[in-house]
Write a structure and sequence with these properties.
about 375 residues, alpha/beta, Purple Acid Phosphatase, chain A, domain 2, 6-stranded mixed β-sheet, about 25% strand, globular, binds manganese (II) ion
């Protein structure tokens, strides 16, 4: 039995931009390649569509692509397609059209020649419920069949959401399956797990532009005789991710460096995707807004698709201030404590070093005692 395992087509992604064709071209390449490689069935681990309610154009194009595939397809829906109870989602719609088999908290058996595939599927659920849903479904391998569990979740350590303590960990997953597949994460991962293997096929289209996606190509897996083979796609655009760090730089220095980096990029027959992250400090008094990037974007518009992030670039004072706020946010201080920290920082710059005075000041401010505030500020007994 030869299976093609893929995920996260995100059909309709960036539909109002020059990248509108990418998701369709790349999904079609994956499906067609699976057919060319004589896959007996194709498994799709969710997020076939990019939006919950795809437009009729997007749905129409998806139907055209799936209609050409004569190989059985089994799919779960992902986080992007999930709708409320009783409402039909877009993957169920494809099932109603006879284009694939949709599975959620269920096991479907497919007989291929003399062999049997038992596909146990859990569609995407909010991460906080993932463990409960898995425990409730509690899939058991079917005797005499190839057993595959397919889900669409954040799984530690591959993606940690940081929200909720109930995020699924790899070790929460049952160990008795031949293969466990998860969608949701957009880059590929492959690991021995329990009696079989665990894989993340990754997306077929680049949506998040993470650095790891530059290192790992887009594609899908072929699973045959319990062996995995990754099949890379040929149609995706080249992706370049680069961080440029500056130290007390002039704005002209930044724009010159950006221009020279962009000039050095070799295009292919498709415009490459370039994500440039500018970090570090500018000379005093300047902010990232002072750098004329519009002109640069114009200059390279015909050569590449640029996403420029300058939110982490600024003068030392501004970055320091932002850092204080970030630290305070992380500490989750009360409003009083937060006020005290900020006031302490500002008074420190003015030369007030005594914590006692600062606390008195804050208390007076909170009580609206302007006279005492004035008195404390004018006495300046503790000035260093
Ligand atoms: Mn996705």
């Amino acid at each position: 039995m030869k299976l093609a395992v893929m995920s996260d087509f995100h059909l309709g992604y960036a539909y109002n931009t020059e990248r509108r064709e990418d998701s369709f071209i790349q999904a079609e390449e994956a499906l067609q390649k699976a057919v060319e490689l004589n896959a007996d069935a194709i498994l799709i681990a969710g997020d076939i569509f990019d939006s919950r309610i795809p437009s009729q154009d997007v749905l129409g194009r998806a139907i055209s692509i799936f209609r050409k595939i004569r190989t059985p397809i089994i799919a779960i829906h992902g986080t992007h397609e999930r709708r409320g109870k009783g409402l039909t989602n877009s993957v169920q719609l494809l099932e109603k059209a006879g284009l694939l088999k949709h599975v959620h908290c269920d096991t479907t058996i497919l007989e291929i020649g003399t062999e049997k595939l038992a596909l146990h599927g859990i569609s995407g659920v909010p991460d906080d419920y993932a463990r409960i849903v898995l425990e409730k479904f509690n899939p058991e391998p079917v005797q005499g069949a190839l057993n595959i569990l397919m889900l669409h979740q954040s799984i530690e350590p591959f993606l940690y959401t940081g929200q909720g303590k109930s995020t699924l960990k790899l070790t929460d997953l049952p160990k008795s399956f031949d293969l466990i597949v998860s969608g949701h994460v957009h880059w590929t991962e492959e690991k021995e797990y329990g009696n079989g293997k665990f894989i993340i096929p990754g997306s077929t289209v680049l949506t998040q532009m993470r650095k790891i996606e530059m290192e790992k190509p887009k594609g899908f897996y072929i699973f045959e005789n319990k062996n995995l083979k990754f099949v890379p796609l040929e149609t995706p655009r080249k992706f370049i991710y680069k961080a440029l760090d500056f130290d007390n730089a002039k704005t002209s220095e930044v724009s010159d460096k950006v221009k020279s980096e962009l000039s050095a990029i070799q295009g292919g027959d498709k415009k490459p995707l370039v994500r440039l992250i500018l970090t570090g400090t500018l000379e005093q008094g300047f902010t990232a807004e002072d750098i004329q990037l519009g002109e640069i974007e114009c200059q390279f518009r015909d050569k590449l698709i640029l996403r420029l992030d300058k939110s982490r670039l600024g003068s030392k004072e501004i970055l320091e201030r932002r850092e204080i706020l970030e630290r305070l946010k992380q500490k989750q201080l009360s409003v009083d404590e937060l006020g005290l920290e900020l006031l302490k920082k500002h008074l420190d710059e003015l030369g007030y070093k005594d914590l006692n005075t600062v606390e008195k000041l804050l208390a007076s401010l909170a009580e609206g005692d302007a006279d005492n505030v004035r008195k404390l500020l004018t006495s300046r007994q503790d000035i260093s």
